[in-house]
Amino acid sequence: MPKTIQFIKSAVLAKDYPVSRKAEVAIAGRSNAGKSSFINALAKNKVAKVSSTPGKTRLLNFFDMEDSYNLVDMPGYGFAARSGDEMKEWHMMIETYLMTRENLCGLLLIMDIRRAWTQDEELLKEFSDRRGFPMAVVLTKADKLSRSQMLQAVAKIKKTSGLSAVFPVSSLKKEGQNAVEDYMYENWVKDL
Ligand code: GDP
């Protein structure tokens, strides 16, 4: 069921993360993968727009998902044009959060279903392997493929990523979000 989403705050440094004991789900993806659309599809309201307002796109944006969990929108990655310093900052911010946040219960990786698993995605998986938090992949824009192409894409990502939790969704058609939410809730949120 869609939840009311409420912006809490933005942060870069660990000292600025909100104080919260709620289970926290981090959400990351390449720019243009469909992350904002997916967050909006999870929510009853459209406050997730906050993340794409100028100045907020390079920060960790913390949201409250009703009385259930917090969602942390991480900045999009994969801009070829980004400078070395920006990449370093991004890396440092992501690493600090993923490796130290105590109430982190899982990472959702958002990918366009038509793209392949690359070193950028592998980097995020390395954090998950190193620290031992669980990870699931959300393949967006499933409506762009036929059913058989969609099944093939899911199987391919499962194989290359080594992850078993891979969910095709269409934010356009509002399909697939419930399966992701149910999975997160049952496997991540409930047990924290
Ligand atoms: P972000 O940069 O990852 O936050 O990506 P956005 O959510 O802004 O989406 C990037 C583009 O993909 C936009 O033009 C969206 O309308 C489009 N898009 C996102 N999700 C879907 C989807 O499920 N289906 C289709 N057809 N387009 C989508």
Topology:
Elements: E1 5-11, E2 24-29, H1 35-42, E3 60-65, E4 69-73, H2 84-100, E5 104-112, H3 119-131, E6 135-140, H4 147-161, E7 166-168, H5 177-189
Parallel strand pairs: 2-4, 2-5, 5-6, 6-7
Antiparallel strand pairs: 1-3, 3-4
Bound molecules: guanosine-5'-diphosphate.
Supply database-style keywords.
globular; Rossmann fold; single chain; 192 residues; seven-stranded mixed β-sheet; binds guanosine-5'-diphosphate
CATH C-level: Alpha Beta
Low-confidence region ranges:
none
Q: Give me the CATH architecture, please.
A: 3-Layer(aba) Sandwich
CATH structural fold name: Rossmann fold
Beta content comes to 15-25%
Order of helices and strands: EEHEEHEHEHEH
Number of helices: 5
Bound molecules: guanosine-5'-diphosphate
Class by alpha and beta content: alpha/beta
Q: How much helicity do the residues have? A: 25-40%
Question: How many separate domains?
Answer: 1
* Gyration radius, rounded: 15 Å
What does this structure look like?
The chain has 192 residues and is an alpha/beta fold. It has one domain: P-loop containing nucleotide triphosphate hydrolases (Rossmann fold, 3-Layer(aba) Sandwich), CATH 3.40.50.300. The protein contains five helices and seven strands. The protein has helices at residues 35-42, 84-100, 119-131, 147-161, 177-189; strands at 5-11, 24-29, 60-65, 69-73, 104-112, 135-140, 166-168. It has a seven-stranded mixed β-sheet, sandwiched between helices. Helix 4 (147-161) links the parallel strand 6 and strand 7 (166-168). The radius of gyration is 15 Å and the shape is globular. The mean pLDDT is 91. The structure holds guanosine-5'-diphosphate. The site of guanosine-5'-diphosphate (GDP) has 16 residues, from helix 1.
